[in-house]
Amino acid sequence: MSVILNVENWSYTKVNQYIREKISEGETEFELHRVNGHRYLFAGIKQKIKAKILGVPGLDLGCFMSGPDIYVYGNVQDACGNTMEEGKIVVYGMAGDVIGYSMRGGKIFIKGDVGYRVGIHMKAYQDKHPVIVIGGKTGDFLGEYMAGGTIIVLGLFSQHPEKPITGKFLGTGMHGGVIYIRGELDPFFLGKNLKISPINEEDLTYLKTILTEYCADMDENLESIINDRFSKITPVSHRPYGNLYAY
Amino acid sequence: MFKDNKDISGCGVSGIINVKGSLIPGDLIIKSITCQEERGNGLGAGFAGYGIYPDFKEFYALHVMAEDKNSLERFERFLFQQVKAIYHEPIPTRKVKTIKNPPIFKRYFVKLELEEQLPTEEEENKLIEMVMYINANLNGVYILSSGKNMGVFKGVGFPEEIAEFFKIDEYQAYIWTAHNRFPTNTPGWWGGAHPFSLLDWSIVHNGEISSYGTNKRYLELFGYKCTLLTDTEVVTYLLDLLIRRHKLPIKLACTALAPPFWMEIERLEEEEKNLLEALRIVYGGALLNGPFAIIFAYNGGIVGLTDRVKLRPLVVAKFEDFYYLASEEAAIRTICPNPELIWYPKAGEPVIIEMPMGTIPNQKSYA
What we know:
The complex is a heterodimer of chains A (247) and B (367). Chain A is α/β, with parallel strands linked by helices and 247 residues long. Chain A is 16% helix and 25% strand.
């Protein structure tokens, strides 16, 4: 049985307190109705719970969390998944800026377009490997200062069919991790010290695994996506800026 | 709520327009800006409304803030020599517990006393000259807004406190903008709250103008004086200079404020390339550096613009004759749950919403 809450007239503090209480009582499923701008929802939650959000959650949805699976039936605002460590956020709408900010594990799946600086400073460590999949298109500075993890951009479910698939300065300051872009990428959009290469068998196997899960969540057809061409963007070396500050 | 000014956050902005010129109750803009409560820290909030003075629509409405009675009397003696004030009164306020010792607020509906009829533009220049003189030279008084059929209400407090204080719920406007302030570099005082306004320009801003010094010196060449101790003030005067006086279309003026990178200009066709190169050279002093999301308005339109690397958020939505702009989507959905269209504008690309000409009195069109 889900805990069903209409949070329309609740402050975000009250919502979060209530959720924590219910989790400590052993509840594992939540459904939040009429969410609008409530900040920090599920922040820091470590338990493996499942949540449905109807509406537009406020900034920092799921920040620092290391457990929940959150399904958002609406758009998400800035800094969703900020420094999250484990769990999953699935968004059936669009997303704002700095999604997955400093994310260090878990998955964020977005159906539509995203804003600027998505995946900024993502990092991976040992068994932690964060993944962001974007069904639409992205703003500038995707994967800025990226240190690890994977970002996949499909460019399919976009509000802006006429626009390029990503913005400018893609991967600026990136020194780890991988960005996969469906189709070709004009090098103009690319940050410095990065290379574009075609995907290999290993990449394809990995993409298949992630996109199978993405398509299952989004109810989309995997075949039509995975058969497209993908480009792979990686830093030219582990320390592309090694000589910039210290030599 | 959060009085610690070391908290890290950003300001919040909101704007609404009805392009058919229907009046929007103040309650809506209050609801939208208070939805973004967390974005401010109680050190400033304000509202600008257009269409609020239909009975005096032909007069410049001066919203004046005075530190004390003496300053106000000195100001009035000066003002009444300069202009014909058809009507003046204290701006109605309510007592708000948390607002202690507010300044005195009065409004004056004035006409310039001229020997001959001047073209609108010259008349407006004369009015600006007077406003600049008063703000720079008369101690203890500031003219916070000076447009026709519009006015700015602002002060130190959270948005709901300032709204309560100025009775914003009792006004109706066809354009509203609002601000929730989180001052970082400059003092949180009554004059430094947003919107900033001159003639019918008003602007609310989230961010900081790192190029303030350059912009201020550039504006001084054209007679604008920056007196309100806050970076955002320069944007108001830049809009007046570029759009009203130099007659740049809004889109081009916004391009001067937030120009494309040279590497982008390099890729353009010859004609556009030449235009943008010329614009960047001629209006180098108008380039705004630093993070910003601004909403500005005038008698006839509302415009949203972010800096060219988008260091501050802005969301736009449309529903029937209404357009909404805000820092957060939730601030729009709280007053318009199901917009027809909602989008995040691209960095440096203005969203310009103008009413069709002939919708409101004294309408301006710059699109």
